[in-house]
User: Fold these one by one.
Assistant:
Number 1:
Amino acid sequence: MDFDVIVIGAGPGGYVTAIRASQLGMKTAIVEREALGGICLNWGCIPTKALLKSGELYEQLSHLEGFGLSVTGKSFDFSKVIERSRGVAKQMSSGIAFLMKKHRITVFDGAASLEKGAPAPKVVVRLKGGEKTSLTAKHVILATGARARTIPAIGLEGDGDRVWTYRDALAPKTCPKSLIVIGSGAIGIEFASFYRALGAQVTVIEALDRILPVEDEEVSKAAHKAFERRGMTFRVAAKVTRLSKSKTGVSVALEAGGKAETLEAEVAIVAVGITGNVENMGLEALGVKVDRGHIVTDGHGKTNVAGLYAIGDIAGPPWLAHKASHEGVHCVEHIAGLKPANLNAPIPGCTYSSPQVASVGLTEAAAKAAGHEPKVGRFPFRVNGKAVAAGEMEGFVKTVFDGKTGALLGAHMIGHEVTEMIQGFAVAMTLEATEEDLMATVFAHPTMSEAMHEAVLDAYGRALHI
């Protein structure tokens, strides 16, 4: 069968790319070996947020007295918590199937591999029934995503029993009473936050000297303190040397500050990063350039092989669903001969823990390292009217501007639902707003987003409420 575009992988990068290709009048096919929606909708972004919401609500039951409320018989049914999460994932995946049908995109359920061809590599699909079919297209776009990184040599490899990857952690049969999380990036912290909310004793191990190491240092330190107040324990600047399993739990040997230490728990979650799904597709035979598990592309997603493109996690960091969608739309619009928006638009990053963390653009340290003379503003939620009324006073907003031009270089937040607020700063950066533009913007009152306005004002010594 012949198509204009074949997309391999139906995650947020792949299915959005296919939809945009169809909108542009291209005959489009998509190949998916597991479930429509990819890891994000089925085993990542969406089901984890369902779990985190259950954990957040359960934890809030212990703090009702301050609102003049009370509850008796506080408990949870872990199987139903997991069931709800899986139901949400199934609903979203079904929605993607509807979108494929609506946009007349041909779906092939199977694993794809590439063979030499022109004007683009030929796509051979081994369907789930076992038979093979060959597809040809003018353009082939790889959106095969990534999987959890493991380190088998020291025992950091999921077994679905005592050692979990993110997939195992999403649907266990029972809730562990104690848990060790190895890695304090967004994935590790989100699972740590969820299981702590349900009462598990949680210890997080981080090889670097602070948790959430990609975030601004002030936010990282504030998050560390906030999580400790919730009862979580941390070992930073700690190197795991060995993970050992038994029938009843795990032992994690580590080195920190020149000293050896061993931690024990029922379960360990391995969250030490991800690696691109570049294997078993015939990339080597085609001569596709791969660097450290990711396909090398130009500014439009094009690889070094004619007619072959790559977007999303397989094309490198940041490993975020919205980045994959953005790259996919850009790639297919470029193929169509349009002049798509800047591929390097600001990409927000979010961690959906309690409290939440969100950021976009440069940290204060990165701005200095890049040669800027940053002007920094901060505003705490503890003096924001909506936050006080809602009982959500933890955290702050931080802004980083270029001292010479007034350009917004970055914004960083920690607090309640800040993942819903960061988009305001992402829009501002995309539109190249200056401090004057943001100062002149009217923010509704009372809202937590007023803290954004105040953080802008504070960078220039004009904060009104502190």
Number 2:
Amino acid sequence: MTPEPIVPKMPDPQASEADVGVARRRALIRLGLAVGAAYVAPTVLSIDRSARAMGPSCAKNPANC
């Protein structure tokens, strides 16, 4: 059996402009969410690290102060 050739998908001439606009909006929303997550991730990770780096409080354990 020979594999079928890959044919590029052409835009559907029956598709309305509203359908194309909705698909574009969905793509932009997904892109925006991905960029937002990538932008916020380092901040969230650094908050976790700085919380671990803090030593014990003297108020909770005065014997170690």
Number 3:
Amino acid sequence: MTAAELLEQALKLPREEQMKLAHDLWVEADRPYEDPTEVEAAWGAEVGQRLQGIVDGTIAGVPDSEVRRRFGL
């Protein structure tokens, strides 16, 4: 199966499954992480840092409407 055929099939999936697939492919492509628990721990730490930055005012959030505009949603 070609990449174009895979994409055609993936576009038929519900949006949530498309996002899960995209995430899983990104994780696989973004080595050196071999262990999925290491990836999850890294994302957990990143989310925690971003949340703390929002709480303490050192990071400004981006409104949902702006994110959707940027990504054409």
